[in-house]
Amino acid sequence: xxxxxxxxxxxxxxxxxxxxYICLSCFHSIxxxxxxxxxxCERPAVDGMTHPRCRTKYTLDGLTSFFRYxxxxxxxxxxxxxxxxxxxxxxxxxxxPNSSFSIFQNILNSKFLxxxxxxxxIPLHPSRYRSRGFNQAEVIASALSKRLDIxxxxxxxxxxxxxxxxxxxxxRDKRLMNMKxxxxxxxxxxxxxxxxxxxxLIDDVFTTGATxxxxxxxxKHAGAPFVWGITIAQ
Length: 234
Ligand SMILES: [Zn+2]
Ligand SMILES: [Zn+2]
Fold this sequence. Notes:
single chain, binds zinc ion, 38% helix, Rossmann fold
């Protein structure tokens, strides 16, 4: 047992049992998503690939989410948003089954895109980053990076506009408008094209998809050939 575990003993976020953030019985209650969604129309889609009819030059090529946003997963995601507890993230990433990863890995392999992948966490606005002290998407990306052996890049995508947090906005149309033009890609567009870089955008939850779609669009405009979204839950 680590000293930190003695000072700050872990309790299950689901049931309060001591020892881990996700205990074995709460682990068994976690619900995987019944199907993957097209990130544009949000209807069921094979392997999370954007439907051909929904695809434009600037849309996400697909989306992978692992869990339903409820129960212990919801509690874990809420906790990591406001408290810097990397152990919770590690436990959440650990419970993702290999089969969930192999879906998009197979797609990338089939298109020879797996070589130059980078994980790009959705950035916070610099002022929000300063007040919170960390970015939960970055913490998730670095845990995924260890599991998938894909590097993280936190400098390529920049948030230029401060927006109202999506969870505080009830109105769906307002949420979508709220995300227009908030991201920019650092002037590396030739790098994206020349190296054929595949972007895996990382966020905690897929709600309306407005954030991921907005970020995907700036990468596509900058020349990225393939952009895939990954969120823990939806
Ligand atoms: Zn529990
Ligand atoms: Zn669709």
